[in-house]
Design brief:
The protein is α/β, with parallel strands linked by helices. 27% of the residues lie in helices and 17% in strands. The strands form two sheets. The protein has an eight-stranded mixed sheet with strand order 1-4-7-5-8-9-10-11, sandwiched between helices.
């Protein structure tokens, strides 16, 4: 009995231990440089440019001086690509943490320099801003600013993408998949810079902007949402089908048993959601967005 007891104890000690599913811990967010998009204030908002923003917990609102938070990739493994991140929040608030600045260190790990946008909010209580007018003006200005300053950050001006969550995904679609509205002539040299993204990333995008009206000129798209999302599962599938049928490059990931706002998966118990940013990493790599462009012949 003594010998058999030792044998059993050794067997138990050598048996494999089944680990619990790991939940990815959030990566610390560095302190960014803040760049106002308009030196004298956004058009129509100049008088309110110095009005304090309101913020608590995860959100920010009362934004009248749109800006970019800049997170350069580590020079040791920066690959020259850049992404403009547009947080969601239903156009009432900005989900500044989990749909904004938390994306920066994950993208930085991929070698991507990241710019997170604070934009004016059209559906905030008392707001006189519009989505197609003021919010999109902020988005377009941000894309132009990044491209115009690409050399300052070691960025390839032909590898600048845009990534939006929820309402931010709507702005991505309005920018990338729909025609740009006519604009009056401008003396600002920045307005002559292209605002077209080279690729687009839509994370549980809202319905505004779909069905798209300029599919034939849409850049390559990565789209993801949860199958249980009552708001945004359908727009994700709708846009993907439009792009696919139009012969455009598009990849769709719909996650079973996932609802809205799974963000970067850092708080999910679903292994597929925890690892969805890895699928984005794969897509960016497969698309050549991490590779320096070859000189034109």
């Amino acid at each position: 009995m003594m010998r058999s007891g030792w044998v059993m104890a050794l067997a138990l000690l050598s048996a494999p231990v089944m680990a619990a599913p790991a939940v990815r811990a959030p990566v610390p967010v560095p302190v960014p440089k803040i760049i106002p998009l308009w030196p004298n204030g956004a058009p129509g908002s100049e008088a309110r440019r110095n009005e304090p923003e309101q913020a608590a917990d995860y959100w920010v609102k009362n934004i009248h001086n749109p800006s970019l938070a800049v997170y350069p990739a580590d020079p040791h493994h920066s690959n020259g690509s850049a992404i403009l991140v547009i947080p969601g929040g239903g156009h009432k608030i900005l989900v500044w943490t989990t749909e904004g600045i938390d994306a920066a260190p994950r993208l930085n790990q991929m070698g991507v320099t990241t710019f997170v946008l604070k934009y004016r909010l059209a559906r905030e209580e008392g707001s006189k801003y519009t989505i197609e007018g003021d919010e999109m003006a902020d988005v377009r200005r941000a894309m132009r600013w990044i491209r115009a300053h690409a050399a300052d950050y070691g960025i390839d001006p032909h590898r600048i993408g845009v990534m939006g969550f929820s309402a931010g995904g709507e702005l991505v679609s309005l920018l990338a998949d729909n025609p740009e509205p006519p604009t009056p002539p401008s003396a600002d040299p920045l307005d002559k810079v292209s605002d077209r993204p080279d690729f687009q990333i839509l994370v549980f995008p809202g319905p505004l902007g779909t069905p798209a009206k300029a599919v034939a000129s849409a850049p390559p798209a990565f789209i993801t949402a949860g199958t249980l999302d009552p708001c945004c599962a359908t727009p994700a599938v709708t846009l993907y089908e439009q792009l696919r049928k139009g012969g455009m490059s598009a990849e769709l990931h719909m996650y079973a048993d996932a609802d809205h706002a799974f963000n970067l998966g850092e708080r999910s118990n679903l292994i597929s959601i925890v690892h969805w940013p890895d699928r984005l990493d794969d897509w960016l790599s497969d698309g050549g967005w991490f590779d320096a462009r070859k000189p034109a012949k």
